[in-house]
Every structure is written in C-alpha cells, then in structure tokens.
C-alpha cells in the first residue's frame, strides 16, 4: 500500500531577497519595527500600522528563520492585545493585515500555532465580528468609502 502513495512534496524553500532581507540581517530582532509599532498604539488603524502588520507577516513567512522565530515570539508575547483591538476595528485593511499576521504565526510552527490558540479565544467578540462581516458579504469597501461625490481619479481614501 505504501508504494501506491505519491511521495511527499519537497520542502518549500523560499529565498527572500532585497531590502527586507538586508534589513532583517542587519537587525535580526526587527527593533525599529517594534519601536514604530509601539508609537502607533493609539492609532492602530493607521495605514502605517496596516503596513507594519503586513511586513511582519512577510518576515515570518519568508524571512530568515531566526528572525521569523523571534517575530513570532514577540507577537505572541507582547502584541496580542493590539491584535485583538485591530480585529475589532472598523477598518477592513487593518483587520485583514492582522489576520494575515496571525495566520503567518500559526503556519510558522506547531508550537506557535498552539500558543496563538491558547492566547486567542475564537469565541471572543473580535473574532465574532470578523465572522459576521464574512456572513454579510463584507470584504469590499467599508461603509461607502471611496464612493463620495467630488472624488476624482486622484482622490485618496484612507482606511
């Protein structure tokens, strides 16, 4: 029977390149990223907070292994309250970025997945809010953003 099964796929090897890798190699604890995130705590729905969450997710998914492991630990130990807040946000971009970051942590290792599930209750209000958005068919533009009169092609809509 074992001969009938296909061989397991080869391990996925991702070789990230560019500025992000150079940064991760020069600052393996991503100290500057955490400092910027700390400065944004009062405005966690800002576009910069969204980009930071996306960057951290990418570092966990594709960054150097030691950097990814450190970022997972840091998120789990000191950023869960912020992630809860982001999930309860009205801004769909920060919600999606936070979910992506959490997903990256879960996929990183079985240990980080277990730790995240111990820290987050899927029955909590923020997760129920996210589930309700999905049931309403959300995921598009929130509350008519970008549909107002006078918005030309160059209009900038934050969110």
Shape: globular
Give the strand content.
under 5%
Average pLDDT rating: 77
Helical proportion? Answer: 55-70%
Give the terminus-to-terminus CA distance.
54 Å
Number of domain units: 1
Unreliable sequence segments: 140-159
Q: Which sequence of SSEs, written as H and E, runs from N to C?
A: HHHHHHHH
How many β-strand stretches? 0
Largest β-sheet summary: none
Class by alpha and beta content: mainly alpha
Query: What gyration radius follows from the Cα positions, in whole Å?
Result: 18 Å
Number of separate helices: 8
Biased composition (Basic residues): 142-152
Pfam families: Npa1 (PF11707)
Protein name: URB1 N-terminal domain-containing protein
Domain URB1 N-terminal: 30-137
Q: Can you give keywords for this protein?
A:
mainly alpha, globular, disordered C terminus
Description of the molecule:
The chain is globular, with a radius of gyration of 18 Å. The longest helix has 17 residues, at 92-108. The protein contains eight helices and no strands. 58% of the residues lie in helices and 0% in strands. It starts with 18 loop residues before the first helix and ends in a 24-residue tail after the last helix. It has one domain (12-135). Helix 3 (47-62) runs parallel beside helix 6 (92-108), helix 5 (80-87) runs parallel beside helix 8 and helix 6 (92-108) packs across helix 7 (110-119).
